[in-house]
Design brief:
Number of helices: 1
CATH class: Mainly Beta
Distance between the termini: 36 Å
Strand content: 25-35%
Largest sheet: 7 strands, antiparallel
CATH architecture: Roll
Order of helices and strands: EEEEEEEH
Number of strands: 7
Structural class: alpha+beta
Number of domains: 1
Length: 110
């Protein structure tokens, strides 16, 4: 990996050294005390609803279609991010920001 992962980057990550899955970087490693990026898993799905709390659905112009499960925000070792797939759009990152505020402040998701 040449450049460090940035906010909104989508990566294919390795799990158990055999399986891969998609993640979105929510907070880059340099911003976090532990220096590991914070990521959320992306479930590849079509026609997922935004009405589920703490789920952010990607937009039509995002490089992958699916849903980001914000409650599963967790650190990941940068070495487990094996391939950059693309970057979330500004519109999707805005939805991520609103969802994070709702989670942190215990507010209803709008």
């Amino acid at each position: 990996m040449s450049d460090p992962p940035g906010r909104g980057d989508i990566y294919r990550a390795v799990l158990d050294q055999t399986r891969t899955y998609l993640v979105a970087v929510i907070s880059p490693g340099w911003f976090n005390a532990g220096h590991d990026p914070l990521v959320v898993p992306i479930a590849r799905a079509h026609k997922v609803s935004d009405c589920v709390p703490y789920v952010v659905v990607t937009g039509e112009t995002d490089p992958v279609s699916g849903a980001l499960f914000m409650e599963d925000l967790a650190p990941i070792a940068a070495g487990d991010l094996i391939e950059r797939v693309g970057m979330l759009t500004g519109a999707t990152l805005s939805k991520v920001n609103r969802c994070l505020l709702a989670i942190c402040l215990d507010l209803p998701v709008q």
